[in-house]
Structures are given as structure tokens and as C-alpha cells.
């Protein structure tokens, strides 16, 4: 996750108060006590969105973790130093024990977020949800009414989600909009940012499309380079305007760590005095941390390097505690992800900003080529922005082909 507001706020404050500092050659990467765990407690969902990485449906799925098993995992996560739990699905509000799970997690001292489609919040349950004192509720909105309803494949889904946002806001719950950018909805971004302001929403999360689940099958709809750049420009300008106007909004992005490098270039052009300081901060962030500081547990208890790796399991919490699975680097993917310098290829291998971006999404590389270390085809930076001049043609974002992907992957992982 790329915390745009945090970095812009740091350099904006610095611009008015402190002298710039020089970049240190070996800035140590920020190291939290444990990974953020995104936990898909349930696969069932009342919607069937086009970009769903969990390929959910409105039916029960066999073999999901019981409440006792969830509690055991939670104890292990706490002991291992996991600071943050993001409870997700499917639709987590459909989990029969969601309130108990969230309450227990809060009681144990986790930062607890809930990632929801917002349609199941209502006047009857909102007080109980507010009483949980959740740290954050993220509600997915994929465009204004027409686009959102089409993405969510349900007429009325937009109004239901907006009702959820308002109920949360009125109940004092910190609430954000979660938006996945594609070429079908990029034109709605300005309206959504206005909606955010009008509704006094606390946070806006822009996710780039990653090629997992239905998001993989629909990857030909991924936003084109110019659309992505325009969207990030707009996000940066909106964020900076809010900071300068004293609004306490927060903007973050996800699934494209090249955003950090893009911001650096933007600041070099627009706030050149602050570029050196920002570069230092971004190196400390270090970009992609799937398999290191980001982890995923799915509804069956299988552990993955992040939510986009559901096709690749590291082991199950029924057989081994998460803390053991996460430390085990015998798995070739985990060994690569955790290595100090990931064995990247193509543009990512020669990119001069690799220490900021971290090589971006390995899932996109894998889904397109079968090679998890190939360049990320979702990088929207021009060659001169990554410091290279002569490169072979870039990987093309071709339509989904299951056979092609799976045929190659076994070879690359040696499985
Ligand atoms: S080339 Fe690779 S490492 Fe460099 S910014 Fe793009 S995705 Fe990141």
C-alpha cells in the first residue's frame, strides 16, 4: 500500500519549516513487528463483481475455518507480532461470527479494518458495528451509480453502498471508499473524489487492477498507461489540495508500487526543493512487500504471499501455525520474495528506482508469463523515468488464457 497523504504531508510540512536533508545511500527499510494480515474469513458474497479476486458467489463454500480455528489463528498472529488485521471476504458481514471475531481482535489490541461492499450495513446493525470501535471500514465503490451497478452486477448496489458509507459516517466510524481503476471506470474518478468530499469520507483507496480471480479474466480492461497517469495526477493534486486546505482526508493507493516512483517524478517537477527528502522517505518505504510485510489467509485457512496469490498456497493454518509458514523460505516463491534482492528480470531488473518500487506486483508478471520474476506489465512509467534507454519491447497485456498461464508456471517454480 502506498500512503500518498503521509508522504505529501511530510514534504509539505517540510517545505514550510525545515531544510531539506540529503539522501543517505543505504537507508534501512522500515520494518514493522509483523506482517499486515488480510484475512478473507468467508468467500460467500451477496454480489458478483467483475473484478473480484476471490471469485465469490452467494452460496456457502465448504471447509471454511470454524470460529474456534479462527480464534486459534488469531492467538498465533498476536504472538507473532502481527499489528494489523483486515477482515475481508467475500463479504465479511455475511460471516455468522463477524461481530465476535472483530470484537475479539480489537480486544487483543490489533488494528482492525473491515473491507466490505457496504450493502449490508443498516439502521438495525450499525450501532452494534460502531460499538466494536473498528479502526477503519473500507467500502468498495467502482464508479458513480450506473458504472458501479454494472460492475457490481446489481441495480441498486451503488445506493446501498452509499447508504452504508453514510451510516458509518453518522455513527462515527472511520470510513473510506475503495476504488479499483479500469478503463471502464476511470472517467468517474473526478466525480468520486467530489463525492468523497461532499460526504466527508475520511479515506480514498485507489487500487490498480491486479490479475487475480475475475480481475485476471478481465485484465484486458486494465487502465491504459495515460489513463493511469491522469488518475494518479488527479489523486496527487486532490490530496495536496486537501492538505493545504487543512482537510484531514487520507489518500492511499494499492497494487502498483510504481506509484512511489511516479510521485517522485511529479515532485521533482512541481516541488523540486522537496524531491531529495521524498526520495529518502520512499526508499525507507521500499515498495512492494508481498510475502514480507503483507500476508493473506483465505477462507480455508491457506496462507498466501498476498491477496492476489490465491492460486499459490504456502500451507494451511490447520496443519501448521501461520507464524511457522511465514518464516519458511523453503518455498521458492517465498525465498524470492523475502530475499534482499528479488531475482527480477526485464525492465524491473535494470530500473534505477527498484529500491523505491521493489519490483511491483509479482502476480501480474506471473499471470502473464508464468514467470513470477518477469517485469511487471502493470508498470506505467516511461523508459526514461526508470532510467533505461534501450529495452526490448514490453510484455503486452493479452487477454486471459488459463491454459497458457498454468502450462508455464510449474516449470518456473520447479514444482
Ligand atoms: S520498472 Fe519495475 S521496478 Fe521500476 S518502477 Fe516499473 S515496476 Fe517498479
Q: Detail the poorly predicted runs.
A: 18-25, 400-415
Total count of strands:
10
Unique ligands: iron/sulfur cluster
Cα-based radius of gyration, to the nearest Å: 21 Å
Arithmetic mean pLDDT: 89
User: Quick one: overall form?
Assistant: globular
Would you tell me the structural class of the helices and strands?
alpha/beta
Strand content: 5-15%
What's the helix count?
A: 17
SSE ordering: HEHEHEHEHHEHEHHEHHEEEHHHHHH
What CATH calls the topology is: TIM Barrel
Helical amount among residues, as a percent range? 40-55%
Taking the alpha carbons of the first and last residues, their distance comes to: 30 Å
CATH superfamily: Aldolase class I
Q: Quick one: biggest sheet?
A: 10 strands, mixed
Broad CATH class: Alpha Beta
Widest β-sheet, arrangement of strands: 7-6-5-4-3-2-1-8-9-10
Provide the domain count: 1
Architecture per CATH nomenclature, i.e. the level-2 architecture: Alpha-Beta Barrel
